Amino acid sequence: MIGYILRRALYGIPVLLGVALITLLLFHVAGGDPAAMKLGKNPRPEDVAALHRSMGLDKPFPLQYVDFLGQTVSFDFGTSWNDNTPVRRIFLRGLGPTLSLTIPAFLIGALISISLSLFVAFYRGSVLDRTTTFLAIGGISISSLVYILVLQWLLADRWKLFPIWGYEYGFGAAFFVALPVLIWVLLTVGQDLRYFRTVALEEIGRDYVRTARAKGLPERRILFRHVLGNCAIPIITRLVITVPFLITGSFLLEIFFGIPGLGGTLYTAIQNSDLPVIKAFTMVGTILFVLFNILSDVLYAVFDPRIRLS
Amino acid sequence: MLTGEKPGFMLRPMSARKAFLPLCLLLLQGACSPDPYPNEKGKVLHVGLRLLPKSFDPPLIEDEGSGKCAAHVYDGLLQYHPYARPYKLIPALAESMPSVSEDRLTFTFRIRKGVRFQDDPCFEGGRGREVTAEDFIWCFKRFAHPATGAKGWWLFDGKIRGLNAWREARKAEARKLKVAGKDAPPLLGIDVPVEGFKAPDRYTLRIRLVKPYPQLLWVLAMPYTSVYPREAVLYYKEEFRNHPVGTGPFRVVEFNPVYRVVLRRNPTFREVRVPDPRRRPGDRIPGWDWKKDEERGLLVNAGKRIPLLDGIEIRFLLEDQPRWLYFKAGYLDFLNPPKDNTDEAVPGGKLSPEMKARGIRLDPWPELGTVYTCLNCEDPLLANPDLRRAIALAYDHRWTVAHLYSGQAVIAKCLIPPGVAGYIDYHPYHSDDGRAQVERAKAFLAKAGYPGGIGPDGKRLRLTFENSGASATAKMFADRFVSEMRRIGVEVDVVVNTFPQMLEKMRKKKFQIAGLAWGFDYPDAQNILQLLYGPNGSPGPNAANFENERFDRLYEKASILPDSPERTRLYEEMARIVADEVPWITRAHRIRQNLQQPWLKGFRYTETTYQYWRYADIDRGMREGLLKEWNRPTRWPLVLFALLFSWLGLASVRQARRKP
Q1: pTM of this prediction?
Q2: Considering only CA atoms, which of B146, B541, B54, B509 is closest in space to residue A54?
Q3: Which end of chain A has fewer CB atoms within 10 angstroms, the N or the C?
């Protein structure tokens, strides 16, 4: 297994090199001149040139690329061009608020979608199944921005059930992230539910379920032990692949609800052509994506002894 | 205790499951209430900004976000009067307005005695020391130092005696060290004196100029020239941008640049009182109609010592909807309604009945700035003034005001806004009512060599419009511009840019037409006229690359004159040249409709300066009462949802159980 993991990790290197190249290329094509912005109104040409030098923008492209790779290896992306804050600090500052939103949302969403999908698969054709399927399809057809705008207006402004905006560090965060978590769950549960229901239906129709029923096993045991156990691989794959996105956050939810997390930070960095921050986020996101892909493969072997990693 | 003895009261397992969802919802509802600051103590001003601050370091404060946050922590020699319009300067840390030499080259300030910096660990014993004239000199030199990277250097560039040479010497020293393979220490050579800054004694500051610079006094009221202790810069180093230490009425207790800034009252703030012209004749400054302001209720705090507030909390609400809803709920004390909510709040420029019923006040502020379309006069096509005139004539300015600004703007017929010396009602290529003049535009197009939009090569004239940002407003404007030009036979391609991309294109002169806006740094027309001065061409601020010998001569003449009828006449002449030559199509002067909660007192809104916040007060009792009244939760939807979901679950289970 270790050999497999190492080999998969090596396969990830070309992915990282490619992402780094595309990021830098895109910045050069569409990023604009951050020096002009940083120097404010009426900059002198020599000051712009000096700033280009200090930012490393005067170097040839291949050298900039090599620098970028060096930063990725050392995990030191320097300081933000926007406000000179070290990128590492920006990352750490935003991580807590982002996770306080995404982890509960992910867990609640996973719990609801898995249990509801088993439930509706078990009671296939019932009012609940049909209603749930209808709501799930309806839900995934609507833009996330619509959810945010409408639910913020309705639940927070009209009905005053949640705070409209804001955040507190520590336990106070629960009060402020309740509505964004609810929206995240609504946004993700529809798609997950549809997928998990299909997986569960396939399992419920298998012979071993019929045999288990014939032997008189309680339905709860059949559903949550046998069916769920055999559905684990597709469910885990889907959930594990989602994890990197929990760290990069949701910029829309964060901006609309005032959560000072990583999603909003990345959004602001793109607006300001803040390359060090963009580079850090892109590379961290890519590395996480590669790692969690490997993890999902490893989990296959853990959950299904028939699978061997080679 | 649940037992089987009393079946009537027994909570059976199935019932517990049924009760789970409603219980969860009720718990959730109990945990949530809309009040984002329920345990607040004291009088706190709550402000919502749509821009993030970048720095608290005065030389780096250029953006609105930083300026608004820092204005309450720092002071300079001078400040804007909080109420007087047209704007007036009054002494801040200066004892009085400066004495000016006859040749207008030397300004002498007396510094107030006994003013102390805020207490901070950067001082020995943590106690702030007294401010002296030397502190100002050190801060001015740091502002000019190349290592600081001050954004407003252009305000001092070539103005102060010996300062440019001093700056070049610092650059040369740094270069020398670099060649020798050494790193230049921060603020290398800052103690080397500058001829133009002298402190003959502890409380006297003398500034000597290269040539008369009438805008200097406005500059000395800008955040760049605020005073701060060198101890703080040396103690916090790079982190000084996050740890401001000033002399202002508030100090920073929390700075999260992506969420909020929390300011609390500075206990060592000097004695400053709200102007009280009725009781203190010394507060009646020429040109201020204080009786009118008294009638408007602005002087309710007259004579009281500031700060009247215990703190200010500034939150960064980047999106329009939450900012608007937050204000409506009463959690922000003042706000300019976002564009999409303007009709709801101030239809036709007047308060809506809903706002009136809530006791909200409207304080409209005509923005000191101009929105314009910049035409690159060095572009081979747009170098032709008749083509520029044709484009200007084809544009319908009424549409801009009505649709882009929801009526909250006036058509800009002159690049200088009304009310600023130099404004003229002369607009040869704007109609009186802003309507497009298509036939005249076509005539000018033909004169330019493009009859019907067809050039000498038989091809249709094609131009490129650079748009900044992908906002709905930017897109609306670009689409409209394309259709306006199509009416006269000109095709326009739109390129969407980020702001840095746009700046880069302008710096490299790689654009034809761009949508821009200018906000005045100080209320003097020179501030906008410099954008068309020939020697300021790209990569300088003259993005239009407009060159007109007469304009340049007039600009040079006016730039050394004090505020006077003669200077106003020169400004008017320059405005006339701009109107004739059309390097810009001036589009609008925006009006900010500032809404203020009923509990906010003594607050006059402006965007030219932000220090007026410190004169505000809050009626806390009124705020608490109204917040409760406005934010009562509606509980029935929760009960309804709980019942609905319970019924759905039960119905499904029953139906499934009936299955064979």
Answers
A1: 0.88
A2: B146
A3: C
